[in-house]
Design a protein that fits this description.
The structure is a homodimer.
Chain A: H1 3-17, E1 24-29, E2 32-38, H2 41-44, H3 51-59, H4 64-67, E3 70-76, H5 80-88, E4 93-98, H6 106-111, E5 115-118, H7 122-134, H8 136-142
Parallel strand pairs in A: 3-4, 4-5
Antiparallel strand pairs in A: 1-2, 1-3
């Protein structure tokens, strides 16, 4: 497993251990993680801090030039909000753990010129199927269903 | 001026008074404001709390049924991130103060079935032109330029 996807999975597992939605992300610039995070719906009552958003927030304020040379690793296919953030900041490449439990806005990302790669990781899928089985109502809330 | 757009402008003005990017929003459900907020880049060093996102965050966790009966009022045309959040949560209608200083993802919103109304408010435009004139670098950072 790629070390950055492994770091995103570690974030997702930390989220699960906290009782949260197990989705994690890391933002990588110049071969180094500059922001990492995981979904904060249960932990902080946040409706905007999906894993990807938490990683961006934890990376702090950055000039456009940094985002444009960065890669976002995330354990799950990014929803429309997180995909919009990727487009806003001009992040050129996204590596996705899996998209079988949830298909996000990958077509939109590609149409906006973002390179999208899906790893199809069993570890990522197992985290989601476990959580969705236990807390379907939280998961539905997280994706506006 | 519609009372809800006025509330969004009040939020934007509060942001300006705090030294922040003057964009404000309110989320309205059943004729009542359930969340209000303004851009928090300068105040909290946030890269995800645009005005619309701050209003959603301050509205707290809500079932999908509430979002689907809500209207988002925002002083400026929503960027791709905020438009993605609107699509994620299925908010059916957005009222925009102005879109001359910045054209967000209105076409994307409309393509997703969201009703988009632009008020073309001088007050909203004046707030942005004042801020962009004084702090162009902050504004560029806020939209990933």
């Amino acid at each position: 497993m790629d070390e950055f996807m492994q770091a995103a999975i570690d974030e997702a597992r930390q989220g699960l251990a906290e009782g949260g939605v197990p989705i994690g992300s890391v933002l990588v610039h110049d071969g180094r993680i500059i922001g990492r995070g995981h979904n904060q719906r249960q932990q902080r009552g946040s409706v905007v801090l999906h894993g990807e958003m938490d990683a961006l927030e934890n990376a702090g304020r950055r000039p456009a030039s940094v985002y444009r040379e960065s890669v976002l690793y995330t354990t799950l296919s990014p929803c429309p909000m997180c995909s919009g953030a990727i487009v806003l900041y001009g992040i050129p490449r996204v590596v996705i753990g899996e998209n079988r439990t949830f298909q996000g806005a990958e077509a939109y990302l590609r149409a906006q010129g973002v390179a999208v790669e899906v790893v199809d990781s069993n570890a990522c899928r197992d985290l989601m199927t476990t959580f969705i089985g236990r807390h379907p109502e939280v998961w539905n809330e997280d994706i506006g269903v």
